[in-house]
Amino acid sequence: MDGVTITFYAFSTLIIIGAVMTITSRNAIGAVMSLVATFFGLAALYALLYAHFLAALQVLVYAGAIMVLFIFVVMVLNRDEIHPFSTRGWSSTFAWLVGVGSVLYLGVQLLSKLLNFTVSMSHQSGGAVLHRDAPPEDFGTVAAVGHLLFTDYLFAFEAVSILLLIAVIAAVVVARSHRSGAYEEPEAAVTESHGGHA
Amino acid sequence: MIPVENFLVLAAVLFCIGGLGVVLRKNVLIILMSVELMLNAANLTLLAFARAHHDQHAHAFAFLVIAVAAAEAAVGLSIVVGIFRTRRTVQVDELTLMKH
User: Fold this and answer.
1) Which residues does chain A have within 8 Å of residue B73's beta carbon, measured at their own beta carbons?
2) Is residue B99 part of a domain?
């Protein structure tokens, strides 16, 4: 076993354990911390796949920004759960069984389709489609991916910037407290002044 | 050199764990985290195929997926905060406003 293989299995173990702890933990803070570990492991695997730009982005955006957002919301809303999994009554047990069964079926189908696809791809033209050797020098660097983003995917790039703007505005509008502040006071002032005139 | 199948198996397992989290948990926050796990599994698949084909277009696609995931987390969490403000709960089985 060489170093790359050991790295892959070490970080895969970290990812699986972190993901399982995320969905089983009763404490939401524990779930967030396990998710941070999972995202760091995924960043390491992205670097192993020569996607250096995406690995840096994974750490910055996921482990940095999104997880901080989650931690803030968890701090505001946190309370431990007595029954974290939805199993009360026969109907929810039935729903539990159907949900778990369908997800496992989805996983088996996904796995078999993906593996069949790669096997058929590697059999085509003597395995020339799937490369086993190292990619070119600038594969996955900021320069190469950025060039792609500003040429072929320029429209999608700009659309995503508009999407982020809309998401920021929507988050502020939805999460703002409607009771206090800017809306009611001007209306009250207006009705008062009307009443004064009458 | 690690074969691409290993990454695909890991991504499928990760996707399933995320799906189980969405189906089984009652806390909205954990459900949102599980959705993030599923998005990351999809990203891992994209990057594994990109490496196997020596094709960087999937990197641009994964970049867009990360941006959309950030937007989804921001909007989803603000909706959770809004629900908590009016209903005082984040458990999905207690949000039965549209059931009756």
Assistant:
1) 66, 69-70
2) no
